[in-house]
Amino acid sequence: MAQLLFKDVNKVYPNGYHAVHDFNMEIKHGEFICLVGDSGCGKSTTLRMIAGLEDITAGEFYIDGKLANQMSSRDRGIAMVFQSYALYPHLTVAENLGFGLTLEGIDADIIDERVAATAKILGLTDYLERFPRQLSGGQCQRVAVGRALIRKVSIFLMDEPLSNLDAKQRVTMRSEIKQIHRSVGATTIYVTHDQTEAMTMSDRIVVMRSGGYVQQIGTPYELYFYPKNLFVAGFIGEPPMNFIRGTVENCHFKTETLDLDISPIVKDAKALEGKKVVFAFRPESIGVYGAEKKGTAKEEGYVISSKVDLTELLGDTTNVYANVGNVNVILKVNPHHTPEMGAEFKFVIPHKAAYLFDAETEEVIESGIERH
Predict the structure, then answer these.
(1) Measured in Å, how far apart are the chain's first and last C-alpha atoms?
(2) Maximum distance among all alpha carbons in the chain?
(3) Helix H segments across the chain?
(4) Regions of the chain where pLDDT drops below 50
(5) How far is CA 126 from CA 19, 131, 155, in A?
(6) Is-contact 91 131, C-beta < 8 A?
(7) CB 268, CB 297: distance < 8 Å
C-alpha cells in the first residue's frame, strides 16, 4: 500500500496546452480512487504523471512522504493496466503473467509459484497453457490485471481497462477488480469515462472537467446526493439530473409555466431575489401524483404538470420523456404507473430531492436539507 499526495500539480505541454490545473489531493493507503470526466479533462494525463510517464510542469507529487517529481518509474512501485490488453500473442498465459518477473531476473521456481497463485486469484488456472488468441476479451483483461498483480507493487494504475469489453463482461470484471483490490490492498487509481464504473467501484471519485479542472472529490454518496455544481450534478447519475432555468421572485422559482415556493429547499430564499437560478431534480426521485404512496400529498413536495412525449420500459422501471413548459425532462417511474404517451399527467418532486443552483456561477445554493 502507498500514500499519495498532490500539491498544486499542473501539466502544461510544450505547445502551451494546459492539461491539468492545480490538482490537489491526498490518497490514503489502500484507497480505490476513480478519476472520471469527459474526453480531454486530463484524467489520463494525471495517471501518467503518477506513473512517471509524463513530467510534472509545476507542483509537488509525493509517494509515502517522498518527493516523486523526478523519481523514475521503476522506483515508484507502480504497475499499470492499459485500455489495450498489450499481451504478447506468441506467449502463453503463464508466460505473459511471469514476463515482468523474468525480466527482473527472479528465479524460475519463484516465478512459477507466483504465476500459480495469481492465476488462482483470477480464475485463470485452467488457461495457463493457452495463447491470447484462444481467450475471450474478459479473460485477456484478467491476464492483463494479473500481470500487474503478480509484481506485488503498492500502487495499481488502471487506464479505462474495461472499455474494450461488452456490457456483460464489464459488469463481471468490475466485481472481480474490486474483489482483487480487497484481497491485495494496493492503492489503486482507476481512470474511466463511465460514471457507473466509478460509482460501483471506488472509495472516492475525482470528477474532472475539460481543461483539467477538478470539480469535486468525494465518496459516491457525496457526489450523488451533494453535488457542488451543475457539471457534477449532470455527470453523476443515469439518466442525468433534470435542469430547469428560471428566476427567483418573492421567494418563488418562476418560469413561464412554473411557480414554486423555494423556501422549503434553501436557507435564505429572500437573499436570492431577482437571481437567475437552475431548479434541478433527479429522474428517480419523483413519484407519479396520486399513483404511489410516495408524493401523493401536495405538501410533501412540488406537484408538476407535464405531457408525455415518449416512454421506455426497462423492466424494473420506465423512463418517461416528458415536457414541462418548454423544457424536456426525463422521469423514472414504476412500470405499473406508466402514463400513456401524449397524456397529461402530474408528478411530485419531494422537497428533499430538489436542488437549486446559481445560473451564473453554476455552484449549488446551500439548502441544509439532509438528502437520503
Answers:
(1) 33
(2) 78
(3) 43-51, 93-103, 108-122, 137-149, 167-184, 195-201, 220-225, 230-235
(4) 294-299
(5) 44, 12, 28
(6) yes
(7) no
Q: What is the distance between the alpha carbons of residues 137 and 164, in angstroms, rounded to a whole number?
A: 8
C-alpha pair distances (Å), 229 with each of 17, 54, 165, 171, 207: 25, 30, 32, 29, 11
172-202 pLDDT per residue, tens = 878 888 888 887 888 999 999 888 899 999 9
23-27's contacts with Cβ under 8 Å and 24+ in sequence apart are 23/59, 23/212, 23/214, 24/214, 25/206, 25/214, 25/217, 27/3, 27/187, 27/189
Backbone region of residue 273 per phi and psi (left: phi > 0; alpha: psi in -120 to 50; beta: other values): beta
One-letter amino acid identity for 320?
V
**DSSP output for 118-181:** HHHHHT-GGGTT--GGGS-HHHHHHHHHHHHHTT--SEEEEESTTTTS-HHHHHHHHHHHHHHH
Q: How far apart are CA 238 and CA 283, in angstroms?
A: 8
Q: Which three cell numbers stand for residue 278?
A: 437552475
Angle (CA) 250-251-255 rounded to 5° is 80
Other Cβ atoms closer than 10 A to 72: 8
Give the strands of the sheet with 58-63, arranged side by side: 18-27, 4-12, 58-63, 66-67
CA separation for the pair 281, 246 (Å, rounded):
14
pTM of the model as a whole: 0.88
